[in-house]
Amino acid sequence: MIFKVCGMRDPENIRRIDLSGADWMGFVFYPPSPRRVESLPAFMPEYARRVGVFVDEPVENIQVRAKEFGLNYLQLHGSESPDDCLRLQDRGLRVIKAFRIGTAGDLEATAAYEAACSYFLFDTKTPAYGGSGKTFDWTVLDAYRGQTPFLLSGGIGPEHVRALKAFRHDRLVGYDLNSRFEQAPGIKDVEKITRFIQDMKCKK
Ligand SMILES: O=C(O)c1ccccc1N[C@@H]1O[C@H](COP(=O)(O)O)[C@@H](O)[C@H]1O
């Protein structure tokens, strides 16, 4: 499973999370976010893959950030179209399209993105674009029959280990950890993240 830790910007926190077992690390480029990153941190992950999180950002701006931060993936949380995703893919950038899920009907939109993305990310449907700290009813995802692998997101916290282990789906490939693991916006609790990843990997 992929463990993605999102909303990073502090160099020392990045260094420690890079050693925590996290596979991917997210950088939020959405200006209104309390965990937005404005400039390249003095330390960038050496082990974790780098994911840029964007909301309706022009393709040209995304390309600039992708180069500056050495991004491996782009996570798109706005109303980016399948064509937008394909344009980024054609420029050699791998795309994770986020969908806000409340009911099974919200999964219908994924079909048009099947050929345009490497991964989907299923987040909670709220008025915010992301980072709400709220979970959704994961059993809604039983209705997802697409081919594209997905990460589960939205309010995942340390208390969810047992429920996450019980939730199974053929296309589930990872978990996104964000606001529920924070000491302050943009600062993750390294012990909580490390323990969560170890507990999730533990067979029991
Ligand atoms: O974290 C943010 O502030 C954010 C802002 C705008 C778009 C996405 C954002 N983060 C992503 O939101 C989900 C859910 O986060 P949470 O666990 O509910 O706090 C996660 O995928 C983040 O990558």
UniProtKB/TrEMBL annotation:
> Which PANTHER family does the UniProt record give?
N-(5'-PHOSPHORIBOSYL)ANTHRANILATE ISOMERASE (PTHR42894:SF1)
Q: EC top class, in one word?
A: isomerase
Residues forming the N-(5'phosphoribosyl) anthranilate isomerase (PRAI) domain are 4-198
The name this protein goes by in its record: N-(5'-phosphoribosyl)anthranilate isomerase
Q: Which organism is it from?
A: Alistipes hominis
| InterPro entries found in the cross-reference section | Aldolase_TIM (IPR013785), PRAI_dom (IPR001240), RibuloseP-bd_barrel (IPR011060), TrpF_fam (IPR044643)
Q: Where is the signal peptide?
A: none
Biological or metabolic pathway of the protein: Amino-acid biosynthesis; L-tryptophan biosynthesis; L-tryptophan from chorismate: step 3/5
Q: Which gene encodes it?
A: trpF
Taxonomic lineage: Bacteria, Pseudomonadati, Bacteroidota, Bacteroidia, Bacteroidales
> What GO annotations for molecular function exist for this entry?
isomerase activity
